[in-house]
Design goal:
2 domains, globular, 10 helices, Rossmann fold, alpha/beta, 6-stranded parallel sheet
């Protein structure tokens, strides 16, 4: 059985149950600017990409001139929901178990640094993670650069690290970095879409993820 010395998590839709809040905020910003409103499925598909890249794909009629106002409206709506967004059930104890086994933990997210730092502080999770990278600090998913930077910081090889995410962007990024991946089906992308990206394994809940990951971790020290 292959073993891993580190686990890198996507954030939205993987650790935190924020998929609907993000997609709904995109819809509301579209309505504010009188732009065609994408479906929840269309808005959810872009989650995990850097925000501006995501918006251009979710809202094809959005112009560069409209982008600043759109971002302001999107952030307004999202921040209204942000304090009420919760971690997925079971995530916190699972992270605690991994930390107890001295596994290196990381985050590779499409969130901005400001957004990730805010939510880490709100959820009191900053101490759980050894290294984090955000979309405004490096090239966005599925480019593997943020994973390469995390590997350098953690001083590990791709074969030693497992990527966990809820979108094909996460799974493709892991493959591009030479990493194995866990696709969770409870987030933004449906099981059929995720299966096409060929993750190492697919799980339907945090409990299933825990049961698959824990026997496969090794102490890095």
């Amino acid at each position: 059985m292959k073993r891993y010395a580190a686990v890198v998590f996507d954030w939205d839709g993987t650790v935190m149950d924020s998929t609907y809040s993000i997609a709904s905020s995109i819809q509301q910003a579209c309505a504010d600017l009188e732009l065609p409103v994408p479906s929840i499925q269309q808005a959810s598909w872009v989650i995990g990409l850097s925000l501006e890249s995501a918006l251009y794909r979710a809202v094809p009629d959005l112009s560069a001139e409209q982008m600043p106002q759109f971002l302001e409206r999107y952030r307004f709506h999202f921040l209204q929901r942000d304090p009420h967004i919760k971690l997925f059930d079971g995530i916190l104890p699972f992270l605690g178990e991994l930390r107890g086994r001295r596994v290196a933990l990381g985050v590779a997210t499409g969130k901005s640094r400001q957004g990730l730092d805010r939510v880490l502080q709100q959820a009191s999770l900053g101490a759980f993670f050894d290294a984090t990278r955000c979309a405004d600090e490096t090239r966005g998913k599925p480019d593997p650069e943020m994973l390469h930077q995390l590997l350098d910081e953690l001083m590990l090889e791709p074969s030693q690290v497992l990527m966990v995410g809820d979108t094909v962007h996460d799974i493709h990024m892991a493959a591009n970095a030479g990493m194995d991946s866990v696709a969770v089906t409870y987030g933004a992308h449906d099981p059929h879409t995720l299966a096409q990206a060929r993750p190492t394994v697919m799980v339907d809940s945090v409990a299933q993820m825990r049961d698959w990951v824990l026997p496969r971790i090794t102490n890095r020290f």
